[in-house]
Specification:
The complex is a heterodimer of chains A (114) and B (114).
Chain A (H helix, E strand, L loop, with lengths): L2 E3 L4 E5 L4 E3 L2 E3 L4 E8 L5 E7 L5 E3 L5 E5 L4 E6 L8 E9 L7 E2 L3 E6 L1
Chain B lengths: L3 E4 L2 E4 L5 E7 L5 E7 L5 E9 L2 E4 L6 E3 L9 E3 L8 E8 L9 E2 L3 E5 L1
Parallel strand pairs in B: 2-11
Antiparallel strand pairs in B: 1-3, 3-8, 4-5, 4-9, 5-6, 7-8, 9-10, 9-11
Classes of the chains: A mainly beta (114), B mainly beta (114).
């Protein structure tokens, strides 16, 4: 069965610092990978997705993610964090040939210090 | 603007009472989903529907029921059989079922027990 792990429950960074949020998945087929962001009391918004091709994916709001098959990872990065980036971030993974419903990780809460 | 509307934003349930959460979309999407979100547990799938008059159970369907009589509407009923209903409920839709179709989310309904 497919599974996705976000090892960090909380991440704290200073405004202007770089950010990396970790996501690891486990299953053997070609993965479909997503990152979503959730502001307090709201729904999820898609930041970026990876299906195939270039392993470095650009998303909205200045975010990018890199797919590394050898490490089963799809980490989210941003070179310089803004206070408005404080939110909950979810990685989601789907398996081609299986259920078309992606599996969501437990989320990482990003705290931004001024 | 097209989107997904969930109502009400806050809902309170008395013991032994059924309550219904509304989800309406004007995106002309075929597939719709209901998720439950608890702190630290990410999103868990309750029910999903690929087409009108058809729906399938997700991972935690017990104590919940749905209907899909119209393409744009996918209401969720939390029955008295759901003993721990306090949570944040998210409705989502996608153009069609399929991992290459990212989900669009509503802003959620927070359900609490009186």
């Amino acid at each position: 069965a497919q599974s996705v792990t976000q090892p960090d429950i909380h991440i704290t960074v200073s405004e202007g610092a770089s950010l990396e949020l970790r996501c690891n998945y486990s299953y053997g087929a070609t993965p479909y990978l997503f990152w979503y962001v959730q502001s307090p009391g709201q729904g999820l918004q898609l930041l970026l997705k990876y299906f195939s091709g270039d392993t470095l994916v650009q998303g909205i709001k200045g975010f990018e993610a890199e797919f590394k098959r050898s490490q089963s990872s799809f980490n989210l990065r941003k070179p310089s964090v803004h206070w408005s980036d404080a939110a909950e971030y979810f990685c989601a993974v789907g398996q081609s040939g299986g259920s078309y419903i992606p599996t969501f990780g437990r989320g990482t809460s990003l705290i931004v210090h001024p | 603007d097209g989107g997904i509307t969930q109502s009400p934003k806050y809902l309170f349930r008395k013991e032994g009472q059924n309550v219904t959460l509304s989800c309406e979309q004007n995106l002309n999407h075929d597939a719709m989903y209901w998720y439950r979100q608890d702190p630290g547990q990410g999103l868990r799938l309750i029910y999903y529907s690929q087409i009108v008059n058809d729906f399938q159970k997700g991972d935690i369907a017990e104590g919940y029921s749905v209907s899909r009589e119209k393409k744009e509407s996918f209401p969720l009923t939390v029955t008295s059989a759901q003993k721990n209903p306090t949570a944040f409920y998210l409705c989502a839709s996608s153009i069609r079922g399929g991992l290459d179709q990212p989900q669009h989310f509503g802003d959620g309904t927070r359900l609490s027990i009186l």
